[in-house]
Amino acid sequence: MRSSKAFDHLWMPFTSWRDAIDYPPLVIESASGVYLYDREGKSYIDGTGSWWSSLFGHGHPVITAAVRKQLERMEHVMMAGCISEPTLHLIELLSLLLPEGTSRIFLSDDGSTAVEAALKMALQYHALNGKCDRTRFVSLGGGYHGDTLGAMSVGSIPHYHALFHHCFKKALFTDPPYCYRCPCGRESSTCAAQCMNSLEKLFDEHHSTIAAFIFEPMVQGAAGMRIYPSAVLERCFALCKKFGILTIADEVATGFGRTGTMFACEHAHVVPDIMCLAKGLTGGYLPLAVTAVSETIFDAFKGDAFSNRTFEHGHTFTGNPLASAAACASIDLMHEYRIPASLTTRSSQLAELLQGFYRYDIVGDVRTLGMVGAIELVADRSTKERLPAQKRIPFSVCRKALAKGLLIRPLGNVIYFMPPYITTEEQLERVVGLTHESLKETIDEKLPFS
Ligand SMILES: Cc1ncc(COP(=O)(O)O)c(C=O)c1O
Fold it and tell me: What stretches of 370-422 show up as alpha helix (H) in DSSP?
């Protein structure tokens, strides 16, 4: 067992200094399927698929074998003047899996770099077409696209982005498509995507300076798993078409079956000009990302070394052979397990089980789409008044769950579930059951909330 002195030097992501001291991270020693094991051998169900990346669970024999086999041959080679066999194979597999029309594939390392590449491609595409004043981006209110500066510039979650927004050339934001707190005061039964009137207004006023519209299709993950109707997406695409604006679908969290279709854009039967993928691409094994574009966009980049048309972008570990081998194996598993069709039973179970949370007054909204589920906690269900942040109620629920052997994390006042696809009926029941226990204990302990 290593010395815990490391904690005196460690800087944890998304964690306050105080919390890192009061709640030191669990040291996970091994993992198998949906379970993580700590130093004492205690097991924890991975209820969020390790930040939404683990599709087929930990230590899947097929992916593990593929990485091991590749490791025996070669760990890495730069993707400049060279490419590895598994990377070539991956490009072939992806070209068959991606929606027709987004089959020119650029690789990078993670969700943020996939988004950075997409934003730069859009800017350069316009510049190459002589439209140098198309330099602004529009995105959905409440969006999250990663933590690098470019990705943050198109994000609008105050908690993450407010401090940095003044540094950027200002992106433009629509009203948030947040159905539970609809900015237009509608119920879902009367929704006609009016929140996107704000998009129409932005396009009306600024379309000649806009490079692209970037969005998380169907689910705004980091904002709190806010699920919005496909009609909103349809309207966005219709407006982009009308004003000639490029579309960038950030499918980093939603891609590869998570929402019940292979890519979330399919819910609205739309194909974006640019698509970003990461997280589940390697089944959650290794960092790797894709920015896939239409041939029309790629055409603008065709030219020789002196044409100034080259996309001057790349990362040291772009197209890493181990990550590529993992991604090939993960895509093979998607076919073998018939993803997304085979997920219907488990997603229906998730939807049904989560309805049970309405028995607590503190639960204002339950939302699910495919293998994404969330409950939003409120101080008062009738007024939708928010919980007092200082009480840290969702945090307390997740801490209690951890003690019981379930790893989940809150997003603001939302507790969410992103179970690996291999989660069994019993395991999912346990995930939800342990959350019930933890929520109930928190309510008993912390009431009244104000
Ligand atoms: C929609 C979306 N885009 C981009 C990212 C950034 O991905 P990464 O953390 O791999 O950089 C995330 C991460 O959660 C995400 O949810």
Answer: 393-404
**Span 237-281, pLDDT tens digits:** 999 999 999 999 999 999 999 999 999 999 999 999 999 999 999
C-alpha of residue 250 to centroid of ligand 1, in Å: 8
| C-alpha Rg value of the chain to the nearest Å | 22
Cβ of 367 closer than 6 Å to ligand 1, yes or no, is no
CATH of the domain at 354: 3.90.1150.10
The CA 371 to ligand 1 mean position distance, Å, reads 17
Last residue of a domain, one of 293, 319, 336: 336
For residue 115 and ligand 1, the question of a CB distance below 6 A is answered with yes
Q: For residues 150 and 224, is the Cβ–Cβ distance under 8 A?
A: no
Q: What's the pLDDT at 349? A: 98
Strand partners for 138: 172, 213
Same domain? For 50 and 140 the reply is no
Domain count, the chain: 2
Instruction: List the domain range (segments joined by +) for residue 241.
Output: 63-336
Ligand 1 close to Cβ of residue 365 (< 6 A): no
Domain check: are 38 and 108 in the same one? no
Residues 84 and 155 in one domain: yes
48 and 79, same domain (yes or no): no
The Cα 367–Cα 26 span in angstroms is 29
What does residue 101 show for φ and ψ, rounded to 5 degrees?
A: 105, -10
Answer yes or no: are the C-beta atoms of 290 and 250 closer than 8 Å: no
For residue 449, what pLDDT is reported? 65
Ligand 1 atom 2, closest CA: 145
Last residue of a domain, one of 289, 312, 336: 336
Q: How far is the CA of 387 from the centre of ligand 1 (A)?
A: 26
Q: What pTM was computed for the model?
A: 0.97
Q: Mind listing the pLDDT tens digit for each residue in 69-103?
A: 999 999 999 999 999 999 999 999 999 999 999 98
User: What are the residue ranges in the chain where pLDDT is below 70?
Assistant: 1-3, 449-450
Residues 258 and 302 in one domain: yes
